[in-house]
Amino acid sequence: MATQLDYYAILEVSRTATADEIKKSYRKLAMKYHPDRNPGDDAAEAKFKEINQAYDILKDEQKRAAYDQYGHAAFEGGAGPGGFDFGGGFGGGGLGDIFEQMFGDMMGGRRGGRARTGNDIQTHVEITLEEAFTGVKKDVRVITRVACEACHGTGSEDGASGVEVCPSCHGAGKVRAQQGFFVVERPCPTCHGAGKVVKNPCKVCHGEGTIEKERTVEVQIPAGVEDGTRIRLSGEGEAGGNGVPPGDLYIQISIDEHGIFQRDGANIYCRVPLRMAQAALGTEIEVPVIDGSRTKVKIPAGTQTGAHFRLRGKGFSVLRSTARGDMYIQVTVETPQNLSKRQRELLEEFEKEAREDVKQSPEHTGFFRRVRDFFEGKE
Ligand SMILES: [Zn+2]
Ligand SMILES: [Zn+2]
């Protein structure tokens, strides 16, 4: 991935700039680099695009918060083609369900991502292509830390009243220390960064406020999801303990390979082998569709290996839409093996009649005609 400039730098504002300041700076820069004012200037045009891209993110409170926390990665994800690239063409569609799931409730208590939270958890779930087509609800088992019930997450035998502001760091969670010529900040050794100390630690969680537990989380995977997509479940990560809000749970979706179908975005490909005589005489075949139904495809006489047939609207589901892509059948003609005596006789007879018939096998005839010319030209 190419290095990307910081959106704040592009808009020439500080990271703490207000929405108004961002808007003002954007207007000024957009005017300056507008293509109408710089006809034929490619650099200005590129700059103009950059400015708009940066403004698209920073003007939106939620996207800005996501960007503050995760940088450009917030808008890349593992989504792959057709994913959630906000720099590009998502425009008309607005925010996706997944985007909302990923970043929507970030604003609740996590403004700008600066608040302390419990750890995020990563896990992954495998689904079948059929499940990706219909969408599916999955129970995901995660080993996580949850608030200790014995002390209600306070870490103290005496409940909330037993928790005091850390005397070493006065609640900051960090201490400054001289290291050679430098003053460095490091987590407070007394409270380990929590800013609070527990007088009489809870016996169940040893004052942590959290205990390890296996949890089952239900995740709704939408129809049309792409392989590699990450879904974020806000607040489903590890509990922070001592009243710190929990982190988030990230679930990466991987889609199993399918024995019949290959998927490319909204389209589905299916290779169907035909017997030689079927391809020569023409036929009608029945093929499976990802939705579990069947459909018929007419194969015209004289069909060659590699021929494609498009079945409109029989492809994959499209995220957040009732639309469907197309299905493509690609046929291969299978040369028969293990012939019976009778079959062999029939084919030998067939071959006698077929030999050198230009209309029957134009490619074959054309090729061997060029071969003849090749040798004759040499002599
Ligand atoms: Zn401390
Ligand atoms: Zn406890």
From TrEMBL:
Subcellular locations according to the entry: Cytoplasm
The protein's matches in SMART domains, at most eight in alphabetical order, are given as: DnaJ (SM00271)
Question: Where do the zinc-finger regions (CR-type) map?
Answer: 135-214
Gene Ontology CC terms: cytoplasm
Query: Locate the CR-type domain: which residues?
Result: 135-214
Binding of Zn(2+) 1: at which residues? 148, 151, 202, 205
Q: Which GO BP terms apply?
A: DNA replication; protein refolding; response to heat
User: How many and how are cofactors bound here?
Assistant: Binds 2 Zn(2+) ions per monomer.
Q: Where are the CXXCXGXG motif repeats?
A: 148-155, 166-173, 188-195, 202-209
| Residues given in the record as Zn(2+) 2 binding sites | 166, 169, 188, 191
GO molecular-function term, one example from the UniProt record: heat shock protein binding
What's in the keyword line of the UniProt record? Chaperone, Cytoplasm, DNA replication, Metal-binding, Repeat, Stress response, Zinc, Zinc-finger
Alphabetized Pfam families for the sequence: DnaJ, DnaJ_C, DnaJ_CXXCXGXG
Provide the transmembrane region boundaries.
none
- SUPFAM superfamilies assigned to the protein according to its UniProt record, in alphabetical order: Chaperone J-domain (SSF46565), DnaJ/Hsp40 cysteine-rich domain (SSF57938), HSP40/DnaJ peptide-binding domain (SSF49493)
Q: Which domain of life is it from?
A: Bacteria
Q: How does it assemble?
A: Homodimer.
What's the entry's take on its domains? The J domain is necessary and sufficient to stimulate DnaK ATPase activity. Zinc center 1 plays an important role in the autonomous, DnaK-independent chaperone activity of DnaJ. Zinc center 2 is essential for interaction with DnaK and for DnaJ activity.
Q: Which family does it belong to?
A: Belongs to the DnaJ family.
Question: What name appears for this protein in its UniProt entry?
Answer: Chaperone protein DnaJ
Q: Which gene encodes it?
A: dnaJ
